[in-house]
Every structure is written in C-alpha cells, then in structure tokens.
Amino acid sequence: MPRLKYASVLRILVILGLFCLWVQIMLSASNGGLERDNEELMNSNDTSEQVLALVPPELHKYLTVHPKNASGNATERTGPKNITDIRKAIEKYNSAQIIHNEDIYGPVQNDTIIIVIQVHTRLTYLRHLIVSLAQAKDIDRTLLVFSHDYYDEEINSLVRSIDFTKVMQIFYPYSIQTHPNEFPGVDPNDCPRDAKLEQAIKLKCNNALHPDLHGHYREAKYTQTKHHWWWKANRVFNQLHCTAAHTGMVVFLEEDHYVAEDFIHMLHLLRATADKSCPHCEILCLGTYLKTYQYHLTGDKRKKQLNLSYIQQVRAANEERRRRQMETQAWNYQVYPNLYSNTQKVEITPWHSSMHNMGMVFNRTVWRGIAELHEQFCAYDDYNWDYSLLHLSQNRPRRDKFRVILCKGPRVFHIGECGIHHKKSNCNASTVISKVQKLLQNAKPYLFPSRVAATVSAGGAKHNKRLTKGNGGWGDVRDQELCANMTKIGREARSYSYYT
Ligand SMILES: *[C@@H]1O[C@H](CO)[C@@H](O)[C@H](O)[C@H]1NC(C)=O
Ligand SMILES: *[C@@H]1O[C@H](CO)[C@@H](O)[C@H](O)[C@H]1NC(C)=O
Ligand SMILES: *[C@@H]1O[C@H](CO)[C@@H](O)[C@H](O)[C@H]1NC(C)=O
Ligand SMILES: *[C@@H]1O[C@H](CO)[C@@H](O)[C@H](O)[C@H]1NC(C)=O
Ligand SMILES: *[C@@H]1O[C@H](CO)[C@@H](O)[C@H](O)[C@H]1NC(C)=O
Ligand SMILES: *[C@@H]1O[C@H](CO)[C@@H](O)[C@H](O)[C@H]1NC(C)=O
Ligand SMILES: *[C@@H]1O[C@H](CO)[C@@H](O)[C@H](O)[C@H]1NC(C)=O
Ligand SMILES: *[C@@H]1O[C@H](CO)[C@@H](O)[C@H](O)[C@H]1NC(C)=O
Ligand SMILES: *[C@@H]1O[C@H](CO)[C@@H](O)[C@H](O)[C@H]1NC(C)=O
Questions:
Q1: Contacts (Cβ under 8 Å, ≥6 apart) of 51
Q2: Ligand 1 center to residue 25 CA distance, Å?
Q3: What is the 110 CA–ligand 5 centroid distance (Å)?
Q4: Which numbered atom of ligand 9 lies nearest the CA of 481?
Q5: Which of 104, 167, 427, 470 satisfies CB 3.0 to 4.6 Å to 422 for a cystine?
Q6: pLDDT digits over 384-396, tens only?
Q7: Pocket lining: 69 vs ligand 3, CB cutoff 6 Å
Q8: Could you tell me the pTM of the whole model?
Q9: 209-228, pLDDT tens digit by residue?
Q10: Which CATH architecture has domain 45-296+338-488?
C-alpha cells in the first residue's frame, strides 16, 4: 500500500514537472522574438512615401539613409573603430564640450531651453524626432543636447548635420559598448542571472551576495538605461560649462519621441500657468500616453522573465492580449476629439512614473532637490529610472510628492512603441509616424492656444499607491555605487576642456 501511494505521488510529480516544462517552453517560444538583443544600429530605409509627403522637402535630408559604402571596403574609411579608439573619442568630445552652431544662434543664456535627448541605437526614430524638432517654432533659441550610450559614426554625422539650432553631444562613458568584458558591461565572472544564492556562492562569482529582490543577478543591458538617465541629468546640471549659470527649463526626451510644432509655446504656457495656479508644481510634462494602459516596454519585458506562478502567467498573457487589442486603436485621433480644441486643458496632479515620464521638464532648483536624495534613487532596487524617481518622490522628508502640470493634448508622442521586433504591417515606424502626423494635422487649428484651462486632479488610486518594493534588477552594489559616484563629479576647471 505505501508503495502504491509512493508510485502515484511520483506519477503526479512527473506530470506536474512535464506541465511546468511545457509552460516554460510555450512561454519561451512566445517570447523568443522579443528577447533577442537589439544592439545593432537600427537604421532602415522604410520611410513610406506617405510619411515623406508630409515632411517639408528641405528636411528630407535628415531621413536620407546613406547606403553603407558598398564599393570601398569598410576598413578604407575612417571605419569602425575599436574600443580603445571609441573610448578616446568619447573622452575627447566630453571634455571639449563643443556647441555646434553657436556662432549662428548665439551662446547659451541662463534661460535658454535645454532639450536633452537620450540616444541608444534607434537611428530611424531619431531621424524623425529631428525632423519634428526642426519644425517646432522657436527651436532656434534652444540648445539640443544629445546624450549617447552607443558611439557610432552614422549617428554622430546625423546629429552634427543639424543646422536649425545649437547642438551638443555628450557620451555616457560607462556604456556596455565601451566595457564589453567588465562592469558596467558583462564581466565573465559575474553571476549568471538565474543562479541560486548557494550556487553563486559556490561559484565565487563577483556579485554572489547581491541578487535583486527577486533573487536574480544583474543584467547589464537592463541597468544601462537608468545609469545613463542619471548620468546625463548630473552631466547637464552639474558638469557642463555652458550650464553653470543656467536657471531655465530642461526638457527630457528620448530618441523615439516626436514633438508637436507648438511644444515650446506650450512649455511657456505651462510654466506661466504653474507660476499662477500651482507654485508647488515642480515638474512640467508635455506628453501623456493616449491610452491609460502602461506602455512600459522594458518593464514588461523583464516582468515576463520573472518566475511567475502558472496563474500569474495566464493573467500576464491575458493582459498582453488586451494590450495588443488596444494598441490597434491607440493612435486613433477620432477617439479623442476634445483633447485639442478651443479650450485646451492642462491638468495638475501628483506625478506618476509611468504616466508622466515622457517630455518631462524641470529646472535646476528641482534637480538640486532630487540630487540631494540620490540615495533614494541609487539604492532603490528598481532598474527603471522613472520608478526610482517615483520612489524618491514618495520619500522626500518633510515634503509632498512631486506634482506635475501637464497638457491633456500631448505635445510629445512616443513613436517607438512597436518598431523593433514587430514586423506586422500595422506596427511599423512609418505607420505610427504617419498617424502622429495626421493627428497633428487635424489638431493644427488648435495648436498655439493663447491660454489654457487648468484642472486639479487627485489622480487615481493606482497612481497614489505607495510603492512598497521595486521591480528589481538593481540589487548589485556595484550599480548602486556607480550611480552614487555619478553625483559626486562636479565641474572641472575650464582648462581641462582644451584637448589636443
Ligand atoms: C531609400 O528610399 C528612397 C525612397 O524610397 C530611395 O529613393 C532610396 O534610394 C533608398 N535608399 C536606400 C539606401 O535604399
Ligand atoms: C572587401 O573585402 C573583402 C575581404 O577583405 C573582399 O573579399 C571583398 O572583395 C572586398 N570588397 C570590395 C568591394 O572591395
Ligand atoms: C565610398 O568609398 C570610396 C572609397 O573609399 C569613396 O571614394 C566614396 O566617396 C565612398 N562613397 C560614399 C557614398 O561614401
Ligand atoms: C585600435 O586601433 C588603433 C589604430 O586605429 C591601434 O593603434 C590600436 O592598437 C588598436 N587597439 C586595439 C586594442 O586593437
Ligand atoms: C539672467 O541673466 C541676465 C543677464 O544676463 C540677468 O539680468 C538675469 O537676472 C539672469 N536671470 C537669472 C534668473 O539668473
Ligand atoms: C524652478 O522651478 C520651480 C518649481 O517649478 C519654480 O518654483 C522656480 O521658480 C523655478 N526657478 C526658476 C529660476 O525659474
Ligand atoms: C520558480 O522558483 C522556484 C523556487 O525558486 C522553483 O522551485 C520553480 O521550479 C521555479 N519555477 C519555474 C517555472 O521556473
Ligand atoms: C509599414 O507599413 C506600411 C503600410 O502601413 C507598408 O506600406 C510598409 O511596407 C510597411 N513597412 C515595413 C518595413 O513593414
Ligand atoms: C566609486 O568611487 C570610488 C571612489 O572614487 C571608487 O573607489 C569606486 O571604484 C567607484 N565605484 C564604481 C562602481 O565606479
């Protein structure tokens, strides 16, 4: 009898095991396409005629992909540099701090709007962002700062070809590209992501004692974005010579954003409204997502990899399906007829990471408040910069959460939502860009409003919820230390910037 029981228990165990394996396989099969690394430069020539038709001819140059020189071999050109060369180039650019076109558009003033753009490798989107910036009114009075974590001559030459305003490039110096076999890249002796603690200790791998809150070890590519975001903010506010006396607004954009032509006008309007109706609004925001579902691409990606229970997996799959369905109508202007109208609304509400992370704007005073609490940002076990900032916002001693004032009719759009892996025709760059173009065309009569109506909202329960724990991915003390170190660097003496 006991033997029989044993056998049936064994049978159940085997069946369970097989089931788990099956779930694993199904999951990995459906994720296969998503998880592949996308380090190569994304620079395709698939701008459709439809999109091109709505771009002024003089701006087509920013969309022209020059074919890789097929005749001459790559080595003949100044060609792909090796790591040593790239590091040298980065050091040189960072210390020279050249501002292109300063001779034409005049020096940076204390109130010049500085637009900082975080750039990785998605060149196709960057081209369209540049085209949109070029069409914005008063863009010639701004400074564009492109912050790169991937050094590439094609990206560089595109950025340097910008002639409609002042341009500066800064290069994140701790990138995976320049540290391929060492921290902050992947050190061969780093613990495998899924190693168990005991196993890791036995392996004596570098970070054995510091898994994240889910028990996983660091993945360089997931930590880089937060590092880069933090580094560039520190760089712009604390280190660049041209910002030493700057007190104006700093706008944070990413390579796959797209701006409306009146975004600078709206910025001034938001600022004026804030000064009048909401002096404690520390953050301005130019874009909300058109749908309220979470767009968090990287967040979703990582969540998928977590060790979920079967029920959670089913739930995640349903959520994903729902998201996909909504995505097909996400850009439908008709659904939002009153966003752009005669009386345009701005909303004053508690700042929330996933809702208000696009086209964020704040000034040095606010930055100081953030930098003072760098531990809340750097030591929080979450690899998302926006969630880390939310954590900081919720843990300010003697101060309220950040409040944001935002345009209900977005002036910044996310065009890179489904560009990388989805080859489906309803989800390529041209399709999304075309929709944004049309949306803005329809909204044109309502752009440049002379005033706005402000509403105050307490935000939904979800948005006021206190973060209890982070999303993980930031358990490694080296990441926390590197992040903290970035705040310690100040302005160097001007003479350093001279480089031979
Ligand atoms: C890119 O597309 C345009 C228009 O479709 C075409 O004229 C051009 O030759 C293409 N360039 C390359 C490198 O394929
Ligand atoms: C480029 O170099 C490769 C090998 O180095 C050679 O086989 C090829 O013919 C070259 N192509 C041209 C166009 O010179
Ligand atoms: C291609 O390379 C050859 C030889 O290096 C050079 O003469 C030519 O100008 C290049 N063409 C382009 C389009 O860069
Ligand atoms: C990188 O290239 C330069 C020349 O461009 C060469 O002097 C140097 O030795 C190379 N370094 C490595 C590590 O290959
Ligand atoms: C900005 O600079 C101008 C003169 O260059 C000065 O008058 C003004 O007070 C400064 N504003 C701030 C906020 O520092
Ligand atoms: C910076 O932003 C804060 C908060 O929005 C605002 O109170 C302050 O006036 C701004 N500083 C300047 C110099 O504009
Ligand atoms: C999840 O983790 C637990 C313990 O860490 C492990 O026993 C289980 O096999 C894991 N499940 C999957 C599907 O990886
Ligand atoms: C993108 O979608 C458009 C139609 O919306 C189609 O004409 C084009 O071929 C697609 N491009 C790619 C690369 O799939
Ligand atoms: C941080 O700075 C300290 C002191 O300069 C240095 O010893 C340490 O290696 C740095 N840590 C990282 C991760 O860069």
A1: 430, 433, 434, 437
A2: 40
A3: 6
A4: 13
A5: 427
A6: 999 999 999 999 9
A7: yes
A8: 0.80
A9: 999 998 999 999 889 999 99
A10: Alpha-Beta Complex (3.90)
